[in-house]
Each structure stands twice: as structure tokens, then as C-alpha cells.
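A common beginner's mistake is to predict each chain separately and then try to dock the pieces by hand. The better habit, illustrated here, is to supply every component at once so that their relative placement is modeled jointly.
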Amino acid sequence: MSLVKKIIPGLLVVFVLMQFFRIDKTNPPVDPALDMVNQVEASPEVRQILKNACYDCHSYETGYPWYTNVAPVSWWVKDHINEGREELNFSIWGSYAAKKQDHKLEELGEEVAEGEMPLTGYDIVHPEARLTESQRQALVGWAKATRKRLGYQGGDNAKEGHGEEEHD
Ligand code: HEC
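With all components supplied together, the output reads:
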């Protein structure tokens, strides 16, 4: 009992101290000309799904709900945002080379079809990001059609570099 009495105040102190390590919530400026939704054709439905379910982690238009003020949740969220933007950033889509755009669309179709994206857990706090089967199909179909429209021809050459391309 006395041990518990010591541990709990100790944990409280740690928790309070954690709160001093704030995350940076400033969104870098967005150049609308480079934004994915202004670069490629997309139906209003697809735009809406991307904005609701993907833009928080994959763009510079991140929204930070109240719980992102509380460490350690804030650190965890920020990690996902950093990693998500690193992998795929719709805000700078226009700066990606054709090969990269093609590859990212391919990944997008796969991740969404397999239910890997949006990231597990995100939909618990963001009900608007819970995708229905028809919303998933809309995204997958759009990714496929967009790849066709962009007409990147390097498919075969790109194959050998496929492994290295995963993380750019
Ligand atoms: C809560 C944050 C979060 C949300 C929301 C989210 N993602 Fe991600 N996404 C990540 C992270 C983190 C990674 C990298 C780690 C991984 O692949 O699991 C990633 C990776 C990806 C990749 C892989 C890129 C590559 O080149 O391998 C694609 C594609 C992707 N996300 C698409 C989407 C789409 C489409 C949505 C919306 C339907 C979405 N994501 C929603 C965090 C998120």
C-alpha cells in the first residue's frame, strides 16, 4: 500500500513534467497550385474523403484536436504526422516527379484496398474518417484512373528501382 502511495504521486509528477514538452503545431504554408486536389481531377466525393480521412497526416493542412495538447498523446500524434508527410504529402504533390506520383498513387490504391489507411486508431477519434466499402472503392478506382490519365510510361524501368522507391 505504501509503495502505491509513493508510485502514484511519482507518476503524477512525471505526467506534469511531460506537459512542458509541447509539439510544434504550426502548419507550413500551403501553395494551392501544388496541392493534389488542384493538380489532378477528382470528384467532389473523392476530394471529401481525402480531406476528411487523409489530410490530417498527409498534408500541411493538419487539424490539431484538444487531445493533441496532452503529452504523451501529442508526441504520438506528431510522430504519425511527420512520418505520414514524409511518405506522402498532398500539399506538395505538384513538386513530385511523374514517377513518384505514379508510385504514390499505386501505394494509395493498395493501402486503401487493404484497409491499411487511414491509419488504425485514427478513425476512433475521427468518425468522419471511417470509410465505407463504397468509399474505399471510390478511392481505389480514382487512384487507378488517375494513374492511367497521368500516363507515366516508365513502369517497366521503374520496376527495378521499386524497392528503393518505397521510402522517398
Ligand atoms: C493518423 C495519421 C494518418 C492518416 C489519417 C492517414 N495516414 Fe497514410 N500514413 C501514415 C503513416 C504514419 C504512414 C507511414 C507508415 C505506414 O506505412 O504505416 C502512412 C503511409 C501511407 C502510404 C504509403 C506511402 C508509401 O509510399 O509507401 C499511403 C499511400 C498512405 N499512407 C495513404 C493514406 C490515405 C489514402 C489516407 C486516407 C484514406 C491516409 N493515408 C490516412 C499516417 C496516416
